[in-house]
Amino acid sequence: MPARCGPPMRSGLLLCALLLVSGCAALPAAAPTAHQVVDPAAAAGVTVIDIVDAPGLAAEAEPEAPVWPIADAAPADNAIAVGDRLSVTVFEVGYALFGAAKDDAAPSAAGRALPRMEVGEAGTIDLPYIGTVPVLGRTPEAVAGDVERRLRGLSQNAQASVTVDRGPARSVVVSGDVKTPGRQPLTAAGERLLDVIAVAGGPTARSADTSVRLTRADQSAEIRLDRLRVGASANVRLAPGDHVELLRAVRSVTVLGAARTVSELPFDSDALSLAEALARAGGPLDSQADATGVFVFRYEPALVDGVRKELPVIYRLNLIDPRSYFAAQRFRMHEKDVLLIANARSAQFGKLVQLLNTLITPALTVELLTR
Q1: Phi, psi values for residue 276, rounded to 5°
Q2: Which of 277, 276, 329, 293 is nearest to 59 (CA)?
Q3: How far apart are the first and last CA of the chain?
Q4: What helix, strand, coil percent values describe the chain, rounded to 5?
Q5: Which helix (H) or strand (E) is 238 found in, with range?
Q6: What value does the CA radius of gyration of the chain take, rounded to a whole number of Å?
Q7: Distance in angstroms (rounded) separating the CA atoms of residues 142 and 127
Q8: β-pairing verdict for 289-304 and 338-343
């Protein structure tokens, strides 16, 4: 049979328990209470805004996309450039300069493809019986006409055809977090930014976590891939030599406190509402959270004495108020926001009871707490 505590021992245990009660605020906690957030913030001059009482903030408009500084490139002129490979085919009737003709054969048109030639720095090609032909900056049709004129008197009714395989001078480079990086030729169709990204297989990560950087000469501009759409000003026609780079840029908010899931939440799309962030975090813990203390910590731009600064602001949501659920749907989360769900005061009291039960009997705990 267990020994009972005598009056001196009982008094000593009660004294220890009372000391524990007086130190309740020092018990371990994963998050502060709502008062522990609001009171120090007010003392430090940090603004605390109730989201429900600020409908203008709850209905925050979608931020405007920055002005895209790089314009459409000029339409392709089909001019031959250094590095292009030319295929020249000569068609002849009757006497064939580039092919053997049979004496007893009826006159007929025959084509002879000459070996493919690459345009060097000199911008010329060499053809049999003709010699050097300038091609740099000229169209395939103009080069074919020049070949035909030079063949007059050498071949009977010669006609020429010139086709071009584009070299690196008429291409763009796609690199970074893309499935198939490399060099892509530009055609007369006038490829745009989304076109080359699609041909490269798209990003390796989600569009919401990817930025596109376009560099042309000394200009550079960047946009998130999920905001780059057909018809957007940033979906420009590309120019030879452009560099398209896909960069992984995960946007997220941090969830702390009495949430079911304390984590970093990435944006799944262009926008993330406070209601969506709460849902993805599993919502407040029933046994620990204070439903009146859902806070969003953010730096907001402001003009202070004519100087643009970023000031800390705390937004508060009270989930006991039904209006809060409408406001939470329209309140847009920003990148790097901190979402904190405060602890309820009763959570600390529950921890105290558990601690007392480890030190004294439950009967003494009840006696202490009912005094």
Answers
A1: -65, -40
A2: 329
A3: 28
A4: 25, 30, 40
A5: none
A6: 38
A7: 15
A8: antiparallel
Helix axes 7-22, 362-369, angle to 10 degrees: 60
Tally the residues of the chain: 371
Residue 265 is encoded by which pair of tokens? 């939440």
**243-248 vs 171-176, strand pairing mode:** parallel
What pTM did the predictor assign?
Answer: 0.65
Residue 340 to residue 256: CA distance in whole angstroms: 5
Question: What gap in Å lies between CA 371 and CA 361, rounded to an integer?
Answer: 16
Q: Is the separation of the CB atoms in 339 and 296 below 8 Å?
A: yes
The one-digit pLDDT tens for each residue of the chain (371 residues) are 444 444 554 555 554 554 444 444 454 556 788 999 999 999 999 999 999 876 666 555 556 666 889 999 988 788 898 989 999 999 887 666 776 555 555 555 667 888 899 999 999 999 988 899 999 999 999 999 999 999 888 887 889 999 998 888 889 999 999 999 999 988 888 999 999 999 999 999 888 889 999 999 999 999 999 889 888 889 999 999 999 999 998 889 999 999 999 999 988 777 889 999 999 999 998 888 899 999 999 999 888 888 889 999 999 999 999 999 999 999 999 989 999 999 887 655 555 555 555 655 555 555 555 55
Determine the Cα angle at 293 with ends 288 and 299, to 5°: 125
DSSP 267: P
| Separation between Cα atoms, residue 124 and residue 131, nearest integer Å | 10
